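To make the argument concrete, we let one protein speak, a sequence paired with a row of structure tokens, as a model reads it:
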Amino acid sequence: MSAERITPTELPEPRYEHGADDYVFVELSEEMSFDANFQAMAITQQIRERDIPGVDEICPANASYLLHFDPDEIAPTALVDELKQIAAETDLSEYEWDTRVIDVPVLYQDEWTHETLMRFRDNHQDPDATDLEYSARINGYETAQDFIDAHAGAPHMVTMVGFVPGLPWCFQMVPESRQIEVPKYVQPRTDTPSRAVGFGGAFTAIYPVQGAGGYQLYGRTPVEVLDVDQELADFEESMVLPNPGDILNFRQIDREEYDAIREGVEDGSYRYTMEEVAFSPEEFFADPDGYNERLVEVLY
């Protein structure tokens, strides 16, 4: 394992913007980084803990956050003043939060996403290659399997949930030199299987439902991230499983295990493998590989 550490980057001054009379948008950085996302995570967690009167919704994103509030309960200027105070008091080197490490089994190179991606080669940068072959080539991997090993080789943090209900955006927890980067399709597809595992920019996404999409397709998970009817036991508190700050471990499985897990999901008996942990940005930055290894060890 590499002893490479992640050097924290200094963020610019936050930009506070009002949206209509009842929204505040705060941009922490124009670029995605661990620092920007962890800062968004830490600030929104403290807003929730303070239970600020008049704040109705709190929505953390990759490098920003959005609040919906009632201007009859709290003046916009007073809210922004409190947000600035929280930001000034937030020190990631001393901050940690309780989260979950979740096992996400993935059948890479599955037949369903392969059939889909082959139907849309005219929309792709490289019509003669599969999405995995293209992604491996432009990231310097010799084979698609080498690329899969890298994608599944370190956990991914859920940096936000959105675009469509239940869709987790996941940023791999490795130093910048090992981050995978892949463009989206030249033109989006009009079809993507539900539970497809895709990749665009620097983010992995799990498509909660069948629909259009532009991310490169790598595989399919047998487990749900969205359960509208909340029939599975682990969706008892919310119809969406992943939360911002959760850590997903994409685990390679074969078709036999995929079918067995899927059978459990469909008959309602499946329970997710996940454990609660305290996440420390400071400890992660100091030794990302060692820290990731300890995170994943709690699962198996």
